[in-house]
C-alpha cells in the first residue's frame, strides 16, 4: 500500500500496522520498517549522499567534558574531507561567502547540549572564511527573535544525537523545530512530518552543513526528562554532511547498534524515528537508505558500531 | 516589575506561554493559586540535607513544552492540570529534581504512570518504579517523578526518603480506571497494562495507524493489555466511548480501514499469518491483535465480553 503512494500521486492514504506487516513479509529484511523503503526508480536516479564520521579517542577530557583542541581538529578534518580539500578553511569557503550572515543553530538541552567547544570551533572557521564576527549568531530557542537568524543567509546546523521521547530521536531534522512558532503543530504521529519545517521556513536552501554531535549520545531515555547518565556512552565522534536525512539516518543506525549491544537484543526505538525516513520518502529532504549514503570513516575505529 | 506585568498579562489574557513562578501567585485566579499551594504543601523543603533551591516552577498544559519539550504531549494527553517542579541541592552531591503532576483524576494519574513502566517496583505510592536514578509513582490524583542527576548512594537514599515523604503527604488513595478491570488476568504479562485516551499514545505503545481510525479522543478510555502467548505477545485493546453511537461509528471506521478483507465479520488473518479480531459491544470496542489462531483471537474477545456482561 505504501509503495502505491507514488503511483497515486502521493495522495494521502491511511497507513496501518498491516502495511508494515505486508512490507516485512515481502522483503528479505525481516522486520524492515516500511517508512525506510524507497521507490526503486528514485533509488537509481539519486546520487549518493556523503556523510563523514570522525572519531577521536581523546575527544573527551572527562565524562561529558570535551577537549576543545581535539574538537577543533576533528571538525577541520571532517569538513576538509567532506569537500575533498586539504585546507579546512578552503573547505569552509566552499560553503560560506564573506558576505553571508550566518546562524549557527545549536541545541541547549541541559544533559547533552551541542557544547560550547563545538559552537566555537564552527564560529572560528566561519570567521576564517571571511565572515565578520558581528554577522555570526549562535542560538537555539531564541532563533525567531534573534536578528542574525532573522536575516541569515546561511545556517550551520549542529546538535547532539539522542533518543527522544516523542520523535524517537533528536536529529538534525528536528533541530529546526525552534524556527516554528508553535512546536506542537509538528508533534502529530510522533513528529512524522518534521521535515516540513525545512520547507515551511525556507531552511533547506540556507543550510550549508549538518553536524550530528556524537560525543556522548543518549541511546535510551526514561522519565519526564527522558534522561539518565546510565544510558549515555562515550562515542567521541561527529557525523558531518550536507544531507540532514543521511546524517540522521546514519546516527540512528549507530544508536540502534548501541541499543542492541547494551540490551542484548534488538530493541527498536520507541517510538520509531519515522520522521527520518519520511523526510526521505514523503518529503524528499534527503536520503535515508544506507545504500544511498557514502559513509567515510575517519579516526578512531574502536567500538565504531557501523 | 517587568516580570509582574508579564505574569499579569499571562494570567488574565492567557495568550503567552511561559513558566510561572510562585512569587506570581498573587496575580492568579483563586483556583490556580489554590492548586499551586496544594502542590507546594505536598513537598518538603528539605530532605537528608538536600535543600530546595531556586523558586518553584509551575507549568500548565500550555507551558509544559518549555520544560520538557515533546514529552509534554504525554502529560497533555492525560489531561494534566499543573506541574510543580522543585530542585534540591546539597554540597558535593548531585541535585534531585521533583516533578509533581496534578492530574485532576486518579484514573489519569494511574494512566500516566502506566506510560513508562520500565524499572523495578519501588514500594512507594499506589504503584511505582525505580530505574537509572528515576523514581516514579502515582497516588490519588498525583503522579510524581523524582530524579537524581547522578546515582550516588547518598542521593538514592535521599531520593527514596523524598518519595516516601511525598507519599505520606498525599493522604487519600485513588481508584484505578474501571476499564482496566475488564482485561482478563490470565497470561497478562508483568507491567503490561497501559491506560490512555488518544491515538497518539496508542501508537506509542502499539502502532496501529497514522490516522485515528478508532476515533479516539480525550474522552475515550482505552486499556491495552499485553499477553504472553508462547514466545509471542498478543495485544488486547479495550475502548470505552462516551456513547454507543460513537462506538458504532468508530467500529465501522476501524473495520473499513483495518480489515476490509475480513474472512468473517470482525476477523482477519494479517500479513504475518497472525489473527486480529474485533467486536462492538454497546459503548465498547474490543480488539485483539497478533493472536496465533482465529480461535484464540475470538476466545480473547469473548472473555472480555463475558466480563463486560457482568458489569
> Which range does the strand content of chain B fall in?
25-35%
Beta-strand content estimate of chain A:
15-25%
SS elements, strand count of chain B: 14
| Apparent shape of chain A | globular
Number of helices of chain A: 11
CA radius of gyration of chain B: 22 Å
Number of strands of chain A: 10
Helix/strand class of chain B:
alpha+beta
Characterization of the model:
The complex is a heterodimer of chains A (306) and B (311). Chain A has 306 residues and is an alpha/beta fold. Chain A contains eleven helices and ten strands. In chain A, strands 1, 4, 5, 6, 7, 8, 9 and 10 form an eight-stranded mixed β-sheet that branches. A two-stranded antiparallel sheet of chain A has the order 2-3. In chain A, helix 4 (68-82) packs across helix 5 and helix 4 (68-82) crosses helix 6. The radius of gyration of chain A is 19 Å and the shape is globular. Mean pLDDT of chain A is 90; it is low at 1-10, 28-33 and 36-43. Chain B is elongated. With 311 residues, chain B is α+β, with helices and mostly antiparallel strands. In chain B, strands 1, 2, 3, 4, 5, 6, 7 and 8 form an eight-stranded antiparallel β-sheet that branches. Chain B has a six-stranded antiparallel β-sheet with strand order 9-10-11-14-13-12, with helices on both faces. Chain B has nine helices and 14 strands. Chain B starts with a helix and ends with a helix. At the A-B interface, helix 2 and helix 8 of A face helix 4 and helix 7 of B.
